[in-house]
Amino acid sequence: MTTYILRRVLLMIPTLLGITIVVFAISRIAPGDPVSFSMGTSGQMDAQQAGGIRAARMKLYGLDKPVCVQYASWLGHVVRLDFGDSIKHRRKVSELIKERLPVTLTLNLIALVIVYAISLPVGILAAVKHGRFFDRASSVILLMLWSLPVMWVGQMLIGYFTGPFSPATFGQGLPPAQVRGLTWFPPAGLSSNYAEQLPFLPWLADRLWHLVLPVLCLTYTGFAYLAKQVRAAMLDNLGMDYVRTARAKGLSEPTVILRHAFRNSIIPLITIMATLLPAMFAGSVIVEKIFSIPGMGLLAFEAVTNRDYNVVMAVATIAGVLNLIGLLLGDIAYAIADPRISFDRAV
Questions:
Q1: For residues 127 and 292, is the Cβ–Cβ distance under 8 A?
Q2: Which of 15, 82, 154, 273 has a CA positioned 20 to 30 A from the CA of residue 221?
Q3: Among the CATH numbers 1.10.3720.10, 3.40.190.150, 2.40.128.50, 1.10.1060.10, which is that of 93-337?
Q4: pLDDT above 70: percentage of residues in the chain
């Protein structure tokens, strides 16, 4: 197992290198460049002045060199964990990532826990009650959830369920009539304007209240997909001979379902788990843009819009690393869940 892990870690290097080459090439092929976006329309400058400023900035950022030289220079800095400077924000990219990555990870980890907490019991119950009312009703609801686009759902949630009210307003001395007149969820951001002046518990309540709608947008598609996969995996195993044998031995139904059928249904769920977090990380680009959450998703959106090459490459590299680590952890979880799986002879 140790040899296999070492091989996989070594294989991550060329894979990640290929990812960065593709993203680097696409970012340079796309029309526009960060210097043009940073200069704007240059309304009060003549063409000669604008051309001189543009040439100076291109040289300053190293964009006047051939693409292969630019990539080699970028790669040399990344090896030293230096992603360069953001042209839009005029700060170190590593500082921006240090500020925004915890926000996105917190958002996605909360959503991931909720997805599994809801999908596992729903999927198991739907498989146990196959063909009955709960199974049919849950299948219809899951299909509807899976079909709803995140952007539309986010806009609908903002339109119907947002406003300035938060749990922290209970400590602000607002009259009861005024509190009743307020709507329930904040439309944007991570906290209220006055949140930093609050004690820890009201601050935490305010932060969680701001995360309700974004987490809901991140969860419902993953919940629908995973619950359907749990149901399918359970149905495959509930019809197996070992399940009938366990029932014939007189084991209780919860024991048969959880210790026998569900345990043998874990393998496909591990495959989904290995890719679900990176997928949610990518999906947070839309969610963070809709709710103006200062995380990696919003940073990536702004970087692509403004052709901020260094930020785009940093976000793509981190996303690639998350995907590769997720796949590696999935393979390790296979061996833990099923002792019959061995990677000793894997190439």
A1: no
A2: 15
A3: 1.10.3720.10
A4: 86
